[in-house]
Amino acid sequence: MSAAETLAIFAAGGAAGTINTVVGSGTLITFPLLLAFGYSPVTANVSNTIGLVPGSVSGAIGYRAELGGQRRRAVKLGAASLTGGATGAILLLVLPASAFKAIVPGFIAAAVVLVVAQPLLNRVLAARHRHPLGGRRALPGLYAIGIYGGYFGAAQGILTLAVLGLAIPEGLQRLNALKNVLAGGTNLVAGLVFVIAASHVSWEAAGLLAAGSALGGQLGARVGRRLPAPVLRGVIVAVGIAAIVKLVS
Predict the structure, then answer these.
(1) What is the mean pLDDT of residues 138-150?
(2) What residues make up the domain containing 167?
């Protein structure tokens, strides 16, 4: 790996850690970059999942004030996310690589749409807080999102925030803090499955992403709310489209 590639992967990890902490979809930065450097789609995905775990942990620590009083909720809802993450990771390992390459462009396209639609989702969430569905009703949705997160995961944070907003009468910042814990747990359990299976991991790439994402998680928690949302959204959409083109070409 050249010095330029090393720096680029580290920087992408930092950007993804920041974006994931603020909203989610940092994978749309790191996954296309790994593809561009010649990693196979499955290896890029597995290495990316492992590498972004420290960023989720770092972001959750940065949001510890907003997590106050949510321990019981995080444990209950986290069980669904963890179980789903393990299921998705196992599916990634047992399904042929050709299936992943065929499915993922659709996942990325859906993630890009979610990124574009995020302002509308935020308005819907704010309105739904007056008539929440209840925490228990979030469990099936979080399990399904966990499966998606363990298998691929781009924009799982946005999906998680949407489900939490519909189910729990809390402010968006507290829900975002909880989202970081649940998405981080999904990535962690999926990463553990990949490590145990010792399959399709580039430890060099994963290590660089881990170092970058850990720093990015802190940055996202401290100053991420000040980032210009339209610019950030435009970058995510651009790299998502680039990933789709790379996969289908």
Answers:
(1) 91
(2) 3-248
